[in-house]
Amino acid sequence: MLERGMVVDKERTFCMIKPEGVARGLVGEILTRIEHKGYRIVALKMLRLTREMAEKHYAEHREKPFFRELVEHITSGPVIAMVLEGPGVISGLRKLMGATNPQEAAPGTIRGDYALETGQNIIHGADSLASAEREINLYFRPEEIMG
Ligand code: GDP
Ligand code: MG
């Protein structure tokens, strides 16, 4: 039982504060919400994505009509990339974020409180264990993650 619990507690996800979140000065607010919930920030960096990185990050959306806009947007300025750790953090972060369309996101969520447009929805979070692992590896080397 204890061993199972320990494995679950170590669940990790990938989170990004998108360019508009950084530009609007919402980094501190978002980190506060994540930390106050109880998740641990185990890796964090500021970077500006290259087109190649952005296309890899959003590979699942390659065929979508908004893909070009998405890549333009995510490469438009610096972002904050993070690895978060805690029990149930993958779905828990998605709950803190709120719905993809901020007009449908509940008040109290990050998107619900700070955004109005889908294309400017401030925050990204991996949506599954497979996505979390893929995205963490895209942005961080193992030695950059504090265990
Ligand atoms: P998420 O997992 O909640 O971020 O949503 P998705 O994985 O479905 O989409 C990825 C990102 O693409 C979203 O966060 C939006 O920023 C953007 N996006 C999704 N749908 C649209 C759209 O119809 N138009 C535009 N401009 N961006 C979109
Ligand atoms: Mg997604």
UniProtKB/TrEMBL annotation:
It comes from the Bacteria. Residues 10-147 form the Nucleoside diphosphate kinase-like domain. HAMAP family: NDP_kinase (MF_00451). GO terms for molecular function: ATP binding; metal ion binding; nucleoside diphosphate kinase activity. One of its GO terms (cellular component) is cytoplasm. Pfam families: NDK. It is found in: Cytoplasm. Homotetramer. Keywords: ATP-binding, Cytoplasm, Kinase, Magnesium, Metal-binding, Nucleotide metabolism, Nucleotide-binding, Phosphoprotein, Transferase. Its cofactor is Mg(2+). Belongs to the NDK family. Its main location: cytoplasm. Its EC number is 2.7.4.6. It catalyses: a ribonucleoside 5'-diphosphate + ATP = a ribonucleoside 5'-triphosphate + ADP; a 2'-deoxyribonucleoside 5'-diphosphate + ATP = a 2'-deoxyribonucleoside 5'-triphosphate + ADP. GO terms for biological process: CTP biosynthetic process; GTP biosynthetic process; UTP biosynthetic process. InterPro entries: NDK-like_dom, NDK-like_dom_sf, Nucleoside_diP_kinase. ATP binds at K18, F66, R94, T100, R111, N121. The active site is at H124. This is Nucleoside diphosphate kinase. Major role in the synthesis of nucleoside triphosphates other than ATP. The ATP gamma phosphate is transferred to the NDP beta phosphate via a ping-pong mechanism, using a phosphorylated active-site intermediate.
